[in-house]
Amino acid sequence: MALKVKATEQKIKIGKYADTYRYVMAPELYTSLNQNKVIKEAALRSGVSRGVMQACWDAAGEVIKAWATEGHSVAIPGLGSMRFGLRAKSVANVNEVKTSLIRSRRIIFTPDVDLKDELANTAIQITCYDRNGDEVKRVTSSDPGTVEDPENNPSPDSPEGEGGLTPNPSPNGDGNDNGGDGDDGMTED
After folding, report:
1. What does the alpha-carbon distance between residue 55 and residue 59 come to, in Å, rounded to a whole number?
2. Would you kindly state where each structural domain of the chain is located, as residue ranges?
3. Where are the beta strands (DSSP E) in 69-115?
4. Which pLDDT belongs to residue 158?
5. Rounded to an integer, what distance in angstroms lies between the CA atom of residue 64 and that of residue 35?
6. Does 171 score more than 60 pLDDT?
7. CA-to-CA distance for 66 and 85, rounded, in angstroms?
8. Is the model's pTM score more than 0.90?
9. Residues 6+ apart with CB under 8 A from 122
10. b (16+ CB within 10 A) / e for 157-175
C-alpha cells in the first residue's frame, strides 16, 4: 500500500515566492473511518463480539481522557502515547505568572517506534496537477523515508517555536514530563 499525495500548481500569494506558480504538495485525505466500522473490524480480528468491543472501546476512551486530563502520559496500544500540554508566554518575575499567559492548550501525540517504522517504509505516490487541473506527472517515492519527530527534532520547515521542542525530562528519568509541551510551559512569543 502507498500513501497518496497530490502536487497542485498554485499561485503563491505571500512570502518569498509571491506572484509565482509553484507545485504545492498535500496528502490526499481519505474519508474518515466511522467508529462503528473500526469497532466491527476490531471485533472480527480479536474474536470478541461487537458489543464487548464497543464496551471496551468506550471504557478505554474514558480512561485515556480521565488520566490524560490529570496530567499523565497515556499509552495507546500499538500507536504511541498522548498527553496534554500548553503554549504560554514566559515572564521574568514570579509575580507576573498568571493564567492569561497561556496561549493554547494542546494534545501531544508521540508515536511508537513501530508505527514510525511502518510510515518510513510506506511508499508515497505523488500525482502532479497543473494550474488547469490536468494531471501532468506521477512519481513514486525514492526518499529515505525520514519521519519527523516533533518532540525531539524540529522540522526545518516548521515555524520557530512550533513543534520540535525537546521535552524536559521528568524527575524520575522516564522522559515524560506529564503534561508540558517541551517548552517548559512558558515560552516567549
Report:
1. 6
2. 35-70
3. 74-76, 80-88, 102-111
4. 41
5. 17
6. no
7. 15
8. no
9. 1, 2, 3, 145
10. eeeeeebbbebeeeeeeee
